[in-house]
Amino acid sequence: MAGLRFRRRHRSAISWRGGAAKRMKEAHQEAALFRRRAVAGFLLIVLALTALSLRFAWLQIDRHDEFRARSEANRVLTRPLPPARGLIYDRNGVLLAENVAAFRLEVTPEQVADMAAMLQALARVVPIGEDDVARFNNLRKGKRSYQSVPLRMKLSEEEIARFSVNRWAFPGVEVVPYLTRSYPLGAEFAHTVGYVGRIDSEDLTRLDKGDYAGTTHVGKTGVEKYYEERLHGTPGYEKVEVNADHRPLRVLDRVAPQPGQNLFLSIDINIQEAGEAAFDGRPGSAVAIDPRNGEVLAMISVPSFDPNLFVNGISHADYAALLAAPGKPLMNRVLRGNYIPGSTMKPFVGLAGLETGIRKPGDTILSVGEFHIPGQSRGYRDDVRGGHGRVDLVQAIAQSVNTYFYSVAFDMGIDRFSEVMGQFGFGRPTGIDLVGEGSGVLPSREWKRGRFNQPWYPGETVIAGIGQGYWVVTPLQLANATAMLAGRGLRHTPRLLREVQRGIGDAPEREPAPPPEQVVHREGDWLAVERGMIEVVKSGTARGIDRDFPYTIAGKTGTAERYSRTDETWTSISTSAIERHQVLFEAFTPAEDPRIAVIVALEAGRSGGRDAAPIVRRMLDAWLPGDLEREAGRNAATASAAEPAG
Fold first, then answer.
1. Which of 120, 141, 523, 588 falls between 20 and 30 A from 231, CA-CA?
2. Intervals of CATH 3.90.1310.10 along the chain
3. Among 405, 356, 354, which residue's Cα sits nearest to residue 528?
4. What is the DSSP letter of 495?
5. E strands, 328-369, where?
6. Is residue 460 helix, strand or coil?
């Protein structure tokens, strides 16, 4: 029994010693594991600190300039300063386009949490139309979220006051002062000066974003569009310190914008206004040109429209009304009006016959009331039953004898006819400094083949000789050709820009003109045509138009039928002769030393002498005082230069 107890104690002692050894081994293993984990942790910490240090060094050293710039950008805001648009004057210094102070609402999109809700709430404070919202959303597409976008232009004082009271409710919305374009004479120069409009998505694709930073308007038509680069100027900028809400605190730096150039046009407001009044609302067009240099003295298109409607965005209702207006006020008749020239072509056809040698000034033809192409029975009528008898070029122009010009055109043939008439500028744009000029139609074999895929017939050549058939001219083309007659065959490119004021305080500088082209080469040819045009006014179809006028006037009437005599329209208007014709009159004066050439085209009238010529006379009466004053000055200067010294 004792032995058994001994063995048990012995085994228990051995077991205890084994357990203790095991526990010591486990403790040693735990200590080794801890040391390994500690080393690993330390290494991880070292690696993390190393990575953090490298990252810190990269951010603070390698990208120091970048982050400094970002930080500065959060503190300093660079705002573009749009330049003041150049002003536009007439030749006498009368202001045609100016800048006036106004206020607009601007929105910074990134500061607005819910744009739709904000616009809806804002509309209850300041009237905002669907057109305003549409333009605003369109402009947002081309700008960054931190850039302000115009929402509503030209606020009234009452609207500014209402918004100021509620401004706290509209973060990101500001009332901003700006200069807006204004046309003090309204519709009078709408087609010539044109207008500016708000920059749209189409404009953004072609405009330089840097040059137009901060600018909201751009030239859309007329001189405003053609000379956009000169009128726009150069933008400036200012650096403004802002707080966390982007509220300005102070201006740190400022570079002033350079305003656009001021333009002085060749237009004379006195001639323009006299012509406008003489039209008395009748649809048509008038152009006056100085034949010595191509300067346009007047450009009239009736009816017209108020360009101020377009400056800050025309409403759909106003635009629809202009489109639906029966007189098409948006169409620039000077550049794109299509007129059948009628007898106004006769001086050019007669001159073409002389220049090509088909006729001599003294050659005569017998007018018996009809002209017949050899071998054909069809007759082409004169205006006088039985004809005018035997006439030369001077008499043919004075009495508007169709037969003379039928024969000239037929003898020339359509190919030579088209070539020579093209030298007078018909069938192509004149090259005036405006956008959108039409080409008209110069009758030719090629034109008809391209337009109708049909051959040319001799009878079409005959009627082309009196300005009928396929002929279409713009008023500007006809005025330019008339100025060429007045300039004795010297053709200038018509132009509107006369002088440019490049900087504040600078004197206006004369704009150089492109060189002229000599078209008529023999003075005797031109003199024969001139004598015929003088007789038109003295004893012909425009007699009496020169009554009490101090200078000799040379002119030519034109009356082109708008409707065929054989259709129902002619019958229906047979009691209203004024509706039957397009009527024209072209003239220049003084005939011996021309200084102005004028054409008037009316879309409805009885005759050129009765309806169009009086408008020309009104324009010449308005031009006369200035010409007499200039002549007196020139004569005084000549006399002073002729006096002996001492």
1. 141
2. 82-265
3. 354
4. B
5. 365-367
6. helix
| Residue labelled with tokens 């009496």 | 544
Distance separating alpha carbons of residues 21 and 509, to the nearest angstrom: 112
Rounded Cα–Cα distance for residues 333 and 286 (Å): 9
Contact 614, 545 (CB under 8 A): yes
Cβ–Cβ under 8 Å, residues 426 and 440: yes
Give the whole-angstrom CA distance, residue 281 versus residue 258: 41
Closest CA to 174 of 78, 245, 255: 245
Q: Is 593 exposed, middle or buried (0-12, 13-18, 19+ CB in 10 A)?
A: exposed
- Cβ atoms of 393 and 533 closer than 8 Å: no
Which residues of the chain form CATH 3.40.710.10?
Answer: 269-635
Contact between residue 291 and residue 484 where contact means Cβ atoms under 8 Å apart? yes
Q: What would the pLDDT profile of 282-322 be if each residue is shown by its tens digit?
A: 999 999 999 999 999 999 999 999 999 999 888 888 999 99
Q: Is the peptide bond before 80 cis (omega within 30 degrees of 0)?
A: no
Among 228, 247, 120, smallest CA distance to 174 is for 247
Q: What does the alpha-carbon distance between residue 108 and residue 170 come to, in Å, rounded to a whole number?
A: 11
Phi (first) and psi of residue 466, to 5 degrees: -115, 20
**Tens digit of pLDDT for each residue in 97-143?**
999 988 988 888 888 888 888 888 888 889 888 888 888 888 787 77
Task: Identify the H or E element spanning 381.
Answer: strand 379-381
* Listed range (42-56, 322-336, 592-606) with the worst mean pLDDT: 42-56
| CA–centroid distance for 12 within its chain | 115
What is the residue whose two structure tokens read 């730096």? 253
Report CA-CA distances (Å) from 636 to 594, 627, 628.
Answer: 20, 14, 12
Taking the C-alpha atoms of residue 345 and residue 341, their distance in angstroms, rounded to an integer, is: 6
Of the listed ranges 60-74, 209-223, 235-249, the one predicted with least confidence: 60-74
Q: How far, in Å, CA of 497 to CA of 267, rounded?
A: 9
Assigned CATH for 82-265: 3.90.1310.10
Which structure tokens are listed for 544?
């009496």
Rounded Cα distance, 454 and 462, in Å: 17
Nearest to 180 by CA among 309, 64, 66, 91: 309
* CA dist 221 → 106, 207, 224, 353, 387 (Å): 26, 16, 6, 40, 49
Rounded Cα gap, residues 579 and 352, in angstroms: 32
Q: For residue 594, is the peptide bond before it cis, meaning its omega torsion is within 30 degrees of 0?
A: no
CATH number, domain 269-635: 3.40.710.10
The neighbour count for residue 489, using CB atoms within 10 Å, is 22
Residue 108, pLDDT score? 85
Residues across the chain: 646
Give the 3-state secondary structure of 262-296.
EEEECCCHHHHHHHHHHHCCCCEEEEEECCCCCEE
